[in-house]
Amino acid sequence: xxxxxxxxxxxxxxxxxxxxxxxxxxxxxxxxxxxxxxxxxxxxxxxxxxxxxxxxxxxxxxxxxxxxxxxxxxxxxxxxxxxxxxxxxxxxxxxxxxxxxxxxxxxxxxxxxxxxxxxxxxxxxxxxxxxxxxxxxxxxxxxxxxxxxxx
Length: 151
Fold this sequence. Notes:
Elements: E1 2-6, E2 14-18, E3 37-41, E4 47-51, E5 65-71, E6 78-80, E7 86-89, E8 99-108, E9 115-125, H1 129-136, H2 143-150
Parallel strand pairs: 3-9
Antiparallel strand pairs: 1-2, 4-7, 5-8, 6-7, 8-9
């Protein structure tokens, strides 16, 4: 932008200068994050069970998002990659605990910090209940019945 200034007494005294104005982004947006409902098989080896994606329309550090587990993980059964959003779990035992509810937080790096959280429900899928029962069942056989039928 060019600025023009002159003396009000004499139009012959004037000067111009160029001013550059740089506008910075204000950190005015929270990251957008959603939590699905997950179903995870029990006794699965350590691995990624979900990858979170958060969007923040701010630019620069204000748009850089990190992830964390804010609550619901007292035994550190789950971990989340700070920058990549990959959620991992240790092997899960349905008989020990069938459902977990984790609070996942996405936070940007701007000033002031903006964050958002969501509740993630994880249901542990065990082997089919009837399959387990049938495999463990013992059927007593009453031989007297067979003798009666054979007479």
